[in-house]
Amino acid sequence: MIGLTGGIGSGKTTVAHFIEECGFPVYYSDDRAKTIVNDNESLKVRIKELLGEKAYDENGMYDRKFVANKVFNNNELLQSLNGIIHPAVRIDFEEWVSQQTKYLVFKETALLFELKLNLQCYKSLLVTAQDNLRIKRVMDRDNKTYREVQAIMERQMPEKDKIRIADYIIYNDTNLDDLKEQTERVIFEIE
């Protein structure tokens, strides 16, 4: 398994799509987590016990905004929530891996280094970009303010620390053609 990561706005999802175009499967941890918190009934019960009934809206769907506001400045609550969600995602990932036939599989996750998941990987691949570019991308994509994006970035591991421990680094500071070329080069090196 190859761990694929990058901070918010780095372009890791774009790189993941390029990896798929090269014929390798990618497990999207964040997307699967969003599905699991809505589909897994026992998980729903545990999340409601932790955060209250408002963690889910009137349609029974996970209220990401409510949850984010509740845990954003409460590290203990965030750790408890992660302690509920991350094991369920790990089980889902293991089931997904068992269904794959390619010799290389990629796990895309924003918190690869923060959760020390890189220790379970054969290699780690970091997608990075200059902070000002990342901020602009997220502001444009998610309609967030500069301060909102900056607050998110401040809660993530600093890029310099990720660069120091990553096995492979893709710099997403130029254009899509360059990004695709770098991705293909890294996959060739890993193979």
What coarse outline follows from CA principal-axis ratios? globular
User: If you consult CATH, what is the topology of the largest domain?
Assistant: Rossmann fold
Largest sheet: 5 strands, parallel
Overall strand count: 5
Order of helices and strands: EHEHHHHEEHHHEH
**Poorly predicted runs:** none
* Count of discrete structural domains: 2
Topology record:
Blueprint: E1 2-5, H1 12-21, E2 26-28, H2 29-39, H3 41-51, H4 64-71, H5 75-98, E3 106-108, E4 123-128, H6 131-142, H7 146-155, H8 159-165, E5 168-171, H9 176-190
Parallel strand pairs: 1-3, 1-4, 2-3, 4-5
Structure in words:
This protein has 191 residues and is α/β, with parallel strands linked by helices. The chain folds into 2 domains: 1-25 and 104-190, Rossmann fold; 35-99, no CATH class. The chain contains 9 helices and 5 strands; from the N terminus they run βαβααααββαααβα. It has helices at residues 12-21, 29-39, 41-51, 64-71, 75-98, 131-142, 146-155, 159-165, 176-190, and strands spanning 2-5, 26-28, 106-108, 123-128, 168-171. It has a 5-stranded parallel beta sheet, sandwiched between helices. α2 packs across α3 and α3 (41-51) packs antiparallel against α5 (75-98). It is globular.
